[in-house]
Design goal:
432 residues, alpha+beta, D-Maltodextrin-Binding Protein, domain 2, 4-stranded mixed beta sheet, 3-stranded antiparallel beta sheet, 11% strand
């Protein structure tokens, strides 16, 4: 075909297209909702939809909850949407404080300090839940001081134990082990009765790290933990070597479930729910998970056992739950804030607590919870506080990997501590 024919053919097609479009009336594209929320909480979608319907009937404002899971998929979607400037009205970057700070500094997240102060909205929340996304003056990420998220619920991590399996092993089901030596003895009795003593999703680094952090606070206290973060106390300190030894002791006494270092938490939850393991280190969300898997499961909840030689209280990972952030550039920013204010009031929080069995961020509502969940709620005061500094992700990753290595016998506690300290020194030299 000649160039002239191609030219005529293309122009003819273009003319026909113009004719078609000229004969059509332009369509008005209406937004699918006034407020769009992206979240990852698949177990709560039905409850969220009921609340959105209720809010629409009360206000005429349409709220749409869109679920993206698992969390890796959700996190990648948020990152891609931020790059393309296509974030929804409400979202969560699902990162640590450093990553959240990067979103704030890039103007993706609204400062809610003024809104939180209006009508003392901030006073209804657990202080530790609010602190997770509050940036104090002089923070290391140079974020303007303020409150940047609305906490939806809170959690804490403790140890669930199967009362029937405890009884089967000759243990008192109403008296859980409180000290580390008692914990070891209980584990031995369970193993002697052919019962797998302990399970958790230790294939997920954050979970094995959370268990270790309780003992870091137990042995170092707040000031000591800060000095470790600042590099003033090395990870080769005898107290950190002791933390690695705790995992070696559990291994040597055969407390761990088979394959625990590669086990994801969903598999660990199934092991406990089906009575294959006597104890499980897990979060307060487990109350809902275990109820859905086995409503008749007879269990109690206990804190991790403290070390008799420790000079400081044993604190636990927790306080932080699900939080929602408002898109600073949203055309419906005020509608988004108004909905979150409504969502965190007593009636809605009570509904969410009953439907999802999660601890509400509203501290007044949290007083009326099922027994197991109430234990977690009362434990919020025993969770460690948000510090003004966090460890680099590289060092955190080394800690978690070396804890796993100790469990499978690849490293001794001493060599594991040395590995972590070497990485700490590399990161400090690099200015991280």
């Amino acid at each position: 075909m000649s160039k002239l024919k191609i030219f005529l053919s293309v122009n003819l097609c273009f003319a026909l297209m113009l004719g078609v479009f000229a004969g059509c009336k332009p369509r008005e594209v209406k937004p699918k909702a006034d407020v769009v929320i992206w979240h990852w909480m698949t177990d709560r979608q039905a409850a969220f939809e009921q609340l959105a319907d209720k809010y629409y009937k009360e206000t005429g404002v349409k709220v749409l909850f869109e679920t993206y899971a698992p969390t890796d998929v959700y996190k990648n979607k948020i990152s891609a949407a931020a790059t393309a400037n296509l974030l929804p009205d409400i979202f969560n970057p699902l990162g640590d404080k450093k990553e959240v700070a990067s979103y704030i500094n890039a103007d993706f997240i609204a400062d809610l300090t003024e809104e939180m102060s209006r009508d003392n909205w901030k006073d209804i929340f657990f202080s530790k839940a609010l602190a997770q996304n509050t940036f104090e003056p002089g923070n290391e990420w140079n974020v303007k001081p303020g409150i940047y998220a609305v906490p939806l619920d809170v959690n804490s991590l403790m140890i669930y134990y199967n009362k029937d399996l405890f009884k089967q092993a000759g243990l008192d089901p109403e008296k859980y082990p409180k000290t580390w030596p008692e914990f070891m003895e209980a584990g031995k009795k369970l193993r002697a009765a052919n019962i797998q003593p302990f399970v958790s999703g230790f294939g997920e680094g954050w979970l094995i790290g959370a268990f270790a952090q309780s003992y870091e606070w137990n042995l170092f206290g707040r000031d000591g933990v800060l000095q470790v973060l600042e590099g003033k106390i090395p990870y080769t300190d005898p107290r950190w070597v002791r933390i690695f030894k705790l995992f070696e002791e559990m291994k040597n006494n055969k407390l761990f479930a088979s394959g625990i270092v590669t086990m994801v938490n969903k598999d660990a939850e199934r092991s406990f729910a089906t009575g294959k393991s006597a104890m499980a280190f897990n979060g307060s969300w487990g109350v809902n998970v275990y109820h859905s898997m086995n409503p008749d499961l007879n269990y109690g909840v206990m804190p991790p056992p403290y070390l008799p030689e420790a000079k400081f209280p044993l604190l636990m990972f927790g306080g932080e739950g699900s939080s929602l952030f408002v898109n600073k550039s949203s055309a419906n920013k005020q509608k988004a804030i108004d909905f979150l204010r409504w969502l965190t009031q007593d009636e809605q929080q009570t509904f969410l607590a009953k439907e999802t069995l999660n601890i509400p961020s509203n501290k007044e509502v949290a007083k009326d919870l099922p027994p197991a969940l109430r234990v977690f709620s009362e434990n919020i005061k025993n969770t460690f506080e948000v510090l003004p500094k966090i460890e680099s992700w590289q060092v955190t990753n080394y800690i978690n990997l070396n804890l796993q290595s100790v469990i499978i016998g690849e490293r001794t506690p001493k060599s594991a501590a040395e590995e972590v300290q070497a990485e700490k020194e590399r990161q400090m030299k690099a200015g991280r």
